[in-house]
Each structure stands twice: as structure tokens, then as C-alpha cells.
Amino acid sequence: MVTTSTIGRSVPRREGAAKVTGAALYTDDLVVADAWYGQTVRSTIPRGRIRSITLDPEFDWERVVVVTADDIPGENVVHLIRDDQPVLARVGGEIRHREEPILLLAAPDRNTLEEAVRHVRIDYDPAEPVYALEEATEVYSTINIRKGKDFEDVEGVELVVERSFRVGLQEQLYIEPQGAIAIPWRERGAGSREPGVTIIGSLQCPYYVHRALKRALKLTDEQAVVVQAETGGGFGGKEEYPSMVAIHAALLARKAGRPVRLIYDRHEDLAATTKRHPGVIRHRTGVKKDGTLLSQDIEIVLDGGGYCTLTPVVLSRAAIHATGPYSCPNVRIHARAVATNTPPNGAFRGFGAPQSLFAAELMVEHVAERLGMSSVDLRRKWMLRLGDTTATGQTLTESVGAELVLDAALKAASAVGRSGGRAVKRGRGLSLVFHGSGFTGSGEKKLQGTLAMEALADGTFRILTASTEIGQGTKTIFCQLAADALGVGLDKVDLAPQDTSLVPDSGPTVASRTAMIVGRLVQEAATEIKDRLQRERAPIKVQKSYVQPDSIHWDETTYTGDAYPIYAWACTIADVDVDMTTGEVRVTDLVTAVDCGKALHPVMAEGQIEGGTLQAVGWATIEEIKMKDGGYQNDRLATYLIPTALDAPRIKTILVENPYSRGPFGAKGIGELPMDGPAPAIIAAIHDATGVWLDEIPATPERVLAACASR
Amino acid sequence: MRFTLNGAAVSLDVVGSRRLLDVLREDLGKTGTKEGCGEGECGACSVLIDGEVVDSCLVAVGQVEGRNVITVEGLAGPRGELSLLQQAFIEHGAAQCGICTPGMLLAAHVLLKKEQRPDADDVREALAGNLCRCTGYTKIIEAVLSCGT
Predict the structure, then answer these.
(1) How many domains does chain B fold into?
(2) Integer Cα distance of A596 and A15 in angstroms
(3) Dihedral (C-alpha) A339, A342, A346, A350: value to the nearest 10 degrees?
(4) What are the 10-residue block averages of pLDDT along chain A, 711 residues in total?
(5) Do B67 and B8 fall within a single domain?
(6) Residue B79 domain-assigned?
(7) Which chain A residues are Cβ-neighbours of B82 within 8 angstroms?
């Protein structure tokens, strides 16, 4: 029997039927017998020390479980990069941001729980908080990238353009808030309970939670079990924060001796969880009068907030992408991330690159304007081509798509409509971006992501991976890749649950690495199984780990070499209407051409791009977080607005296939790329419409009107 | 109290001030209705009451006495066969993470009842109360349009 490959075909989503019938079970949908409800009590000051925690003696605490830092059996640390973030702040201990977790409560019903929260009193010795980047003295990390000469030493520069840009906070706003259910044992077979903790939660990275849980609760590998429930969106927001939620739930469950549900409401989720890093990016660009790019000098400062979280890695990606997709012989990039007394910022789709590419792309516009050149022509002159080297000295040897996507987007964009008269002005802007697929530098080598596959006696196959389905299509694409390599129908292949007691650590579901890096392991495992089935009989189990190709070299100390295995590329053209009376910006149409290497599932690839594009449109136009006393003022969905179906532009996606030799069928990671291009294209479009340049996003009506008035 | 849920009579002994959302999810096991914000902003908890889209987080269960409530579980046929709209959502890639999907389906279902051949603007208008963070709405709009007759 000949089985047709489904690669490149948009087969039905694996869990599609469950999602359209309401049968798919997300964390809060799960019924767990005898579970109590949990709640986190948080700091109300941005900086200081806890003087005392008082439980009102008038209140009946009999039916409530209370957990403080003293109840942590292991280390009081949320394991990630640096051991600076406590699970719970302790009495006498430092508070570094508002909403910092201090105390945990659990009760059999929500009313008792709410009542209990009102009877906790925390007294503080406040200290003077630091909010402004300019005033921050504590540095989380710095990165320096040097290529060629210092700015002042470059010869032949005929024009220097300087400009500074500022980007704001953004909430991931997955529609399912954070949540975990902790069970203070693990099941071994039917009804048999063994010592340990089981977490079922909404999360991207089961093994991140596993490691954090082991450390804080002093558990062995086996005793900590982490299971992903159906997850209602992540966008990076469920990369590191679920470790905190899981540890808290586990501490409560352990003390209560029963399962505990710790499900955030939207208000708590908005107020307390990580956001996209805001920052300031300053550029100095030196060119010849004919536009030749000679020198780039870039300074990046990102605001890490109260704890380090993933900030150094975010900063790294911001720095490496800071030049934009351009070839420049002399580059200096100085990047640093500082601490302030705001809730910690963390992973969010794009991971620093949207911030630095926003500045890089607008710099092209400013230089072009000063030279009197078309910015498209200037991009063609500067863009990275095959054989060119990036700022880290990486020579691009294949799948360089800058020109392909630029041409494809220009071809697909229709003529700009006429402006709607004096009150509404119409404009168009363009951007060109690249995004490194997979982990930075030696990340994949250090991680050694592992995947297993089984051929079962009944003739079916099972993929064992910790890579999670968060809407982006992991389950579907992995089954397509496995079925293709095995030469069997899709119905013969399935995934084991994302449960750390069953599957190996194939790494976190982040960094646009799942289809490209882990997908390739799926192919390799399936190929080996098929081969062995020629000689052996099922059951067979194989395991595959990532092997870094010899051709990839990265020097962490000098920040030189192959920063990413490959880059994906995108060109975005945005059309906007600017209401000159109200200052309101409406993005009406958006064309985006994406070099994805190979679209394994075109509908899902388009879906990723469209969703990321709208998230970026939100960041550029309406998503603004206003700070007050170190907290977020608009921490409700009524005041933190994201684009609705009425706000969303018509989005036209063009998939450009430009294969990468080591990706499955040539595929490159594109999950984050669509977050990079829209913001600068929209700001350029606003300039085209109004004649004013904004240096800061979001382009709120206030900023647009102020810029127009000061012109 | 009594009401009709997905075509079947329901009789319950509950406090009338409880949120319809909680009664559906916790007492009746209809967990297809999701809570995204609890403040009537996101539409994840959309249900139909007498054919109109309503945020069930803002409705006290007492208000549905004698009325006809439909949740996402009521959209498929009697033997579980998917409706044309549900099929279109799968085919067009309109469900990604899926958390907004139940609400989206119900809002689109009402639109298609009222307007047999909606245009893209009608669809955007009808779905404006339901937030999605995954799709950029493009594939959802395509899926709904494909069901126009």
C-alpha cells in the first residue's frame, strides 16, 4: 500500500474536534476530587522589607491552610537563570516589586478563601523605589558585540544620523489565565499513591516546572510529576511563570494534604505576571552620501523589573538582532538590562528582537529621509545576502531570504487607496526583518533536547516529547513528520501525553524551535524505527538527541560566531488611516511575506503569522500599560485593550519557501518572526500619512496628536 | 429552578445569584464554556440565551429560569456529528489554542441564523465581543464566511 505524504498539506488539526465541541479539557475544566481552592497574597508596596505578617485572631483559621516561606521544604528559589527570585518573600526579607508573593492560602470553598484573605495583615518598612531606566544602578546583564572599527575610527563617513527610540510594556494576554492544580502524591497505577507531587497545569515547558518543583520542594526526579493540560495560549507568558504557580499550588497541597486548585483570575494575571521588556534603544549610523552603510553604533537598555527571570537571554536576542537584517562592516552594540522595582518582565514572543528591530527599521527610514533616497532602495543596498556576515561575524551560507520577501511583499501589496480627505489621512510603511530560529549560540548544544518514539505491537506509533501544543500545531506537525518518515497513514501515529513521568525532555516550547529542531528529531527517530522494522518486530523504542552540526561555532565570551543555526525573514507592508482630529490610528491592511523555509502545514503557518502580526499591531497601536507607584494602573481587561475583530486589519500572508538544509523538509522556525515587523511598518505608515515621526510606541492618540502639534 | 440546556430540560436546586458560568461548569459539567476575564470583556464564556449571545459570567443563574440556554456542547448533532460551522473552523484553521473557540462558534452561529450570507464586515461586527489572541481573526472570519449560503 502506498501512503501519500501529508507534508505541505493542511490536514485537520489533531485536537481540532475536541476544541470545537468543548470537549478539550483545560486546567480549570478538570474535576479533581476533594480539591481546595488556593490564593496568593501579594505585596502592596514596590520596595521595602516585610516587618510582620499577622493573621487576625478573631478569624476562624481552622478551615484554612496558610503557607509562608517557612513551609518551603527545599530552597526558597524559583529556579531559572539566577537564584534571585524567592518562591515567597519572608518576614524580614526584601520586597522588590508590587504583587510579590508573600503568603498562600487554601480553603474548601471560595467564600471562605476570600474571607481569609481579608484577615491577613502585612506590615512593611518601605524603601525608595527605582522606576526610571536612567536611575537604575543594578545591572542584570550586559552584552557587547564588536565588528570592525569603533564608530569614531571609521573612515569615509559623510553623514551621521542619530535617533533614540522607546518601546513599552506588553501583556501576552493568552485568553486562558495562568493556573495549576497540585496533587500531593503521584499515582502509580489505579489508586496507588506514592510520595511526591503531581502538577497539572497550563504551561509551555513541562521540564522547567519539573526542575523548579524539585528544587523548592526537595523532590527527586521521579517524585515530581508535571502534566500539561490543554493550554489556552502562551506566547512566552507560560514559559517561566508557571513554575511559580506550580510551586505555590504544590506547597498548599502538601500542607493541606489534599489537591489544591490555584487558578488566577484575569486581574491577578494582568497585575502580577511577566510582561514584554520595555526599553530605550539609541542608534548612530554612519553612511556615505550614496547610501553605503559604513557604521552602526547601538545602545540598548532593557527594563528587567524586580527579578532577573529570563532577562539576560532576552537581552542577548535583542542585541544580536539590533542591526536589522543588514550588512555593515563596522558595528558596536552595547546592551544592558537593569533592575527596577516593577513586576519582573519575561518571555514574550520575539524575546527582545521586536524591541531592537523596531529601532533598527525606523533608523533605515531616518537615514533614507536624510539622504533623500527611497527607504526600499536603501534596504536593497544594505540587506544581508548570501555570503555576507552579521554583526557577530556569522557568515550566511544558505536560505537568506531578505530580497525574496521584499520582492514578494511589494508584488502583493495593492495600490494605496486615496486618503479620506482632510480629517483622515492614509499612509503606507514597510519593514524588513529577520529572526534567528532556535536557541541562541550554544543553547541547543547545552540543552541536548531528547525525543523518543515507539513502534507498538498493534502497528501504531507513539511520539514521546515534552514539546507542548499551545495552539501553534505541535501535535499535528509532529504526526505529519512521523507518518511521512514511517510511510504510514496519519491515523497510525499519536503523541504520548506531555507528562514528565512518560516523556523525555525535548526542551522548552519556545524560541521558534519546535518544528525546526524537535521536528527534525521526530524525522530522525521515525527513520530509525522504519529501518529497524525491516529486521526486528515491534515493540521498538528509539531515542534521539540533538547533535550540533560541526559547522556551527559560537564564542560566548566574545559574542562572535554563529548566533543562530538559521534565520527566517519577513517583509511587512502596513496601510494606516490616521484621524487627524482624534489622533486615532487604524491599521487597515497588512501584507506580510515570510520566508519560512518550507511550510509543513500552510494553514497553520499562516495562522501563526496572522496571529503574531495582530499581536504586534496591538503593541504598536493600542496596548499600553500605565504605571502608578510601581504597579500597572490598567490591570483589567476593561482597561488593557487588545485588538478585536473590528480593529484587526485585513492581513494578507505570503509564504515564501526557501529551504534550510537541516530543517525538516527545509522548515525554519517562524513562531516569533511575525512579532518583529509590523510596529516599524506602522510607524513609517503614520509618517507617510501625517509627516511626523513617532519614536515611541504604542502610537496612542495622545502621542500622535502631540507629535502633530509640535511639528 | 428549571430551564432548557442544549434542548434538554434541566431542574436544579441552586442559589439564584450564582453566576450562570459557574453553574454550567461546576454543577452541570459543561466545561466548554470558559472563563477568560470574569468581567464581560473577552467573550470566552459566551452562551446563547433564547438565541442571543450573552456573557455567562455576567448572568445570575436565576435569570435563565424558564429560558433556553445553548452552550458549545449543544452545537453538534444528536449523534455528535459536527455542524458545518464546526467543520469549517477545523478546515480553515480557525481554532488554534481553542480557548476562545466555544464563544466564537456561538457568536458566529447566531450571525449565520440571522444573516444567511454575511460579508466580512458583518462577521467582524458579530465577533467583536469575542477576543482571540492566536489567529489575528483572519482564519475565523474565513471560516464563518465559508458557511454563508
Answers:
(1) 2
(2) 24
(3) -90
(4) 85 98 98 98 98 98 98 97 97 97 98 98 98 96 98 98 98 98 91 94 98 98 98 98 98 98 98 98 98 98 98 98 98 98 98 98 98 98 98 98 98 76 91 96 91 98 98 98 98 98 97 96 98 97 93 94 98 97 97 98 98 98 97 97 98 98 97 98 98 98 96 81
(5) yes
(6) no
(7) 17, 20-21
- The interface pTM score, or ipTM, of the predicted complex is 0.99
Where does the pLDDT of residue B5 fall: very low under 50, low under 70, confident under 90, or very high at 90 and above? very high
A606 touches B: beta carbon within 8 Å: yes
| The three three-digit cell numbers of residue A609, written as one number | 503569522
Side-chain half-sphere CA neighbours of A26 within 13 A: 33
Q: Output phi, psi for B65, to 5 deg.
A: -50, 125
Q: What pLDDT is attached to residue A163?
A: 98
Do B64 and B95 have their domain in common?
Answer: no
User: A16-25+443-545 — its CATH code?
Assistant: 3.30.365.10
* Mean pLDDT value of segment B122-139: 98
Cβ distance A20 to B82 under 8 Å? yes
Residue B149 is predicted with a pLDDT of: 82
In this structure, the answer to whether residues B52 and B104 fall within a common structural domain is no
Q: Choose one of B41, B74, B107: the last residue of a domain.
A: B74
Distance from CA of A357 to the nearest CA of B (A): 21
Residues composing chain B: 149
Q: Taking CB atoms and an 8 Å cutoff, what residues of chain A touch B118? A: none
Per the structure, the complete domain to which residue B69 belongs is given by 2-74
Residues 201-260 of A with CB under 8 A from B: 230-235
Chain A 444-473, residues with CB within 8 Å of chain B CB atoms: 470-473
CATH number assigned to the domain with residue range A139-171+275-440+559-709, chosen from the 4 options 3.30.365.10, 3.40.920.10, 1.20.950.20, 1.20.1440.230: 3.30.365.10
Give the list of residues 6+ apart from residue B121 with CB closer than 8 angstroms, or none. Answer: none
CATH code for the domain defined by A32-128+173-272: 3.30.365.10
For residue B41, the domain's CATH number is 3.10.20.30
Hey, of B71, B86, B91, B97, which one would you mutate to test binding to chain A, going by the most A CBs within 10 A of its CB?
A: B97
pLDDT number for residue B52: 98
Q: What's the confidence (pLDDT) of residue A2?
A: 61
Query: Residue A417: its pLDDT value, please?
Result: 65
Q: Do domains A32-128+173-272 and A139-171+275-440+559-709 have the same CATH topology?
A: yes
3-state SS string for A172-203: CCCCCCCEEEEECCEECCCCCEECCEEEEECC
Give buried/exposed letters for B36-71 (b at 16+ CB in 10 A, else e): bbbebbbbbbbbbbeeebbbbbebebeebeeeebbb
Q: In sequence order, what are the beta bridge partners of A287?
A: A159, A293
CA gap A314, A304 in Å, rounded: 9
Alpha carbons within 13 A on the beta-carbon side of A618? 29
**φ, ψ of residue A606 in degrees (nearest 5):** -60, -40
Are B133 and B115 in a shared domain?
yes
Domain spans in chain A, listed from the N-terminal domain onward: 16-25+443-545, 32-128+173-272, 139-171+275-440+559-709
Phi, psi dihedral angles at A285 (to 5 degrees)? -125, 130
Report the candidate in A355, A344, A326, A369 with the shortest Cα–Cα distance to residue A274: A344
pLDDT of residue A541: 98
How many CA atoms within 13 Å lie on the side-chain side of A390?
A: 27
Write down the pLDDT at residue B96: 98
Residue A1 has a pLDDT of 53
**What is the rounded distance in angstroms from the CA atom of residue A274 to the CA atom of residue B88?**
35
Q: Chain A closest CA to B134's CA: distance in Å?
A: 5
What average pLDDT does chain B have?
A: 97
Residue A360 to residues A51, A283, A323, A526, A622, Cα–Cα distance (Å)? 47, 8, 6, 42, 22
